[in-house]
Amino acid sequence: MDHVFLQDVLAGLRLPQKALPPKYFYDQQGSAYFDQICQLDEYYPYRTELGLLPEVARELKHYFERASVSSLQLVEFGAGSLHKVKPVLEELSMVDEFVALDISGEHLKEASSDLAEAFPQLTIKVVQGDFTQPMQMELSSATPMGFFPGSTIGNFEPEEAVEFLRNAGTTLGEESYLLLGVDTKKDRAILEPAYNDSKGVTALFNKNILTRINRELDGNFDLDQFEHTAIYNQQLGRIEMHLRSLTKQEVSIAGERFQFAEGETIHTENSYKYHPEEFERLASRAGWSPESVWLAADGIFAIMLLRRSAAGR
Ligand code: AVJ
After folding, report:
1. Tens digits of per-residue pLDDT, 200-240?
2. The pTM is what?
3. pLDDT (tens digit per residue) in 60-76
4. Ligand 1 center to residue 34 CA distance, Å?
5. Which residues contact 16 (CB under 8 A, 6 or more apart)?
6. Any ligand 1 atom below 6 A from CB of 271
7. Does domain 44-186+274-308 have CATH number 3.40.50.970?
8. Ligand 1 binding pocket mutation candidate from 23, 26, 34, 273 (most atoms within 8 A of CB)
9. Which segments of 27-94 are extended strands (E)?
């Protein structure tokens, strides 16, 4: 039994508002569900960011040429299926080493052998680990550039996002860059369907965390007694996903029993949305200066280039 997973689950379910950390969605099945989410019509962030990346990468190439940066080490946080890095590597020819960090090691290994085939000259390193924690990384002599696409940063509380950005700065070192995808604040009529798709894939993704607890932590969640919900909390600027108990029930996990009232929820994910300027302020508190921002049509998604600055350190 994974001790850290167990402790995190028990601690989360003992809270008055029961909660589970979203990083545990991504076992093999969960990663596959997430890939399916990315193909949904309603889930605009994936295709919007992917559509914007070739242009971003072309402009980055010119930017680094002007800055006389001839060699880059690209470090992706939460690399998952490695779809996003391909358009970047295709354009940004000064990348000679790629480091992929992800919590789901198996998923990543499969994806990285595909990448090696597509980019035979590239040095590829795969590191399995929890990038939400500070970590040590081997830096090459190239200029490090972090890559954190998908708006995964939205899973953190804003204060945790500042801490993550500060840690990333420490990991990447002086004179580094960070390329980030940020989902923007917008009408709930666009936001909510993205997390309540008509095919029910997001519901399967959300409930998979219960399946995983049942299997790995000796739990007995009855999946039919919980329903998926996702609402936009406009006040806090975040999508909240929950699993709502359909009845009064008791669930046991590794011998510990948890009571659920009818309608009580487990809060499984926050997905914060930021105005670009709002995010820039957050980044600058963590010692990063905004260099460029690219916006998709109608401003529905942003990609930002940050540079590590002396101020704020
Ligand atoms: C992977 C965190 C960016 O917040 O949009 C998708 C996860 N959750 N559908 C997001 C997710 C439900 C996704 N991130």
Report:
1. 999 999 999 999 999 999 999 999 999 999 999 999 999 99
2. 0.94
3. 999 999 999 999 999 99
4. 8
5. none
6. yes
7. no
8. 34
9. 72-77
CA–CA separation, 219 vs 45, rounded Å? 33
* CB of 149 sitting under 6 A from ligand 1: no
**Residue spans per domain, the chain:** 3-37+188-272, 44-186+274-308
Q: Which residues of 175-194 are buried (b: 16+ CB within 10 A; e: fewer)?
A: ebbbbbbbbbbbeeeebebb
pLDDT digits (tens, 9 = 90+) for 148-167: 999 999 999 999 999 999 99
Residues 6+ apart with CB under 8 A from 65: none
Token digits for 6? Answer: 């167990």
Q: Are 97 and 89 in contact (CB under 8 A)?
A: no
Give dist(CA 22, CA 26) in Å, integer.
8
